[in-house]
Amino acid sequence: MRIETIFAALLLFVVALGLGSPATAMSLGSTAHVIRDASLYGGPGAAYPVTGSVTAEQDVIVTRCSGLWCLIDDEGGWISKENVSFGQHAGELLQGPRFIDGRAVDGTICFYDGANFSGHSLCLDSGNVLPDLVLVGWDNRISSVSVEPGTSATLCRDRNFSSYCVRILEDMAHLPRLIDNSASSIQMLTQSPF
Q: What's the rounded Cα separation, in Å, for the pair 159 and 163?
């Protein structure tokens, strides 16, 4: 009886902290889709021991990428980047997302290189796609974002919308630690297909 009470109290504590909720797990990584059946490894490379496997068309959460390898959090292993897609649906390597969001309205979002909407700005309209911010001189510079009501965008740490991504729905005077001064691609969401 005492063990059951301790277990119940521990379970309530974990749920109260939010550690057991799927929403918390989702916020710590980026959704990706497995393109083909693949082995998982104990580190970023085939030289590490095999720790498991994933199947084609499986949705996974990628917590980070290193070179050509990505860590799948919910499966507990590393997968070759050539076997995952970071688009909305499974597709070939670096196909890139095609985010179409009926809730997004056409408008403008401004990205700032300083916190609290300070410094230089880059303002983009809905539908713009910048897969490599190096090309416009904004790689690893964004610290805050101002959003017109109803508009939204996705910021990703790596080029071509891979690795860690966050969805921007409202003004953010300070970006989350994992994306602050680390964004390398931007996808402005739109109501209509490109």
A: 9
